[in-house]
Write a structure and sequence with these properties.
By secondary structure, the chain is of the alpha/beta class. The chain contains nine helices and five strands; from the N terminus they run E-H-H-H-H-H-E-H-E-H-E-H-E-H. It has a five-stranded parallel beta sheet, sandwiched between helices. Helix 1 crosses helix 4, helix 3 packs across helix 4 and helix 4 runs parallel beside helix 6. The radius of gyration is 17 Å and the shape is globular. The protein starts with 5 loop residues before the first strand and ends with a helix. The model has no long low-confidence stretch (mean pLDDT about 95).
Length: about 210
């Protein structure tokens, strides 16, 4: 089995407990025009998709006027950043995990469906940016997750083979993208599952020790 040399993290729901912020922020923007996404629909259909894709689905399924997409998207980003500045703080479990992995020589990156500015600010406020070799956003690829492009791009940037990388993911679309990339995958349910022990155990499993 190949030796794992890098760990690539999704951001929302993995390193940042931001799912709720995105959900609330988008609904706040949609409510300006009388639309809303239920929690059930969010979990079943929309979770892990970029905002542009969510708006496209709402247009096809519920007749949201396409002309409103850009404005709703802008308002959603504004509302999201309000939550981020208010609630995004360092978590010891993640700082410990990333600093320990870094000290053991692993390459570390974030690959997120969020826009670059969001990733940058959240990583900064969570005090994790200093451990990363780089991060990728939906602005760095043509196709967002569930397409594997963002993970393949990250793997290529590390100059590694897929089997030399571990991807940490939490939602259906992200897991689909991670598995399609050919890398090893650690599936997590909450941000607290993203700890050094779980990551290390998965690496040992993948390396077949």
């Amino acid at each position: 089995m190949a030796k794992i040399k890098a760990v690539i993290f999704d951001m929302d729901g993995v390193l940042i407990d931001a799912k709720e912020w995105h959900y609330e922020a988008l609904n706040k923007a949609l409510r300006l025009f009388g639309f809303e996404i239920s929690r059930y629909d969010h979990l079943v259909t929309f979770d892990g998709l970029p905002t542009s894709k969510k708006l496209e689905i709402l247009t096809l399924q519920r007749g949201l006027p396409r002309g409103l997409h850009q404005f709703i998207n802008q308002m959603k980003q504004i509302y999201t950043m309000e939550y981020v500045y208010l609630k995004c703080k360092p978590k010891f479990v993640h700082e410990y995990a990333l600093s320990k992995l870094k000290s053991e020589g692993y390459g570390l990156a974030v690959a997120s469906n969020s826009i670059r500015h969001s990733v940058d600010v959240m990583m900064e406020k969570a005090d994790l940016k200093k451990y990363l070799d780089f991060f990728l956003s939906n602005e760095d690829v043509k196709k967002p997750k569930p397409d594997p492009e963002i993970y393949l791009t990250a793997i290529k940037r590390f100059n590694l083979k897929p089997e030399e990388c571990l991807i940490v993911e939490d939602n259906f679309n992200g897991i689909k993208a991670a598995e399609a990339s050919g890398a090893g995958v650690l599936k997590v349910n909450t941000v607290y599952d993203v700890n050094f022990l779980n990551i290390k155990n998965r690496i040992v499993e993948l390396e077949g020790h």
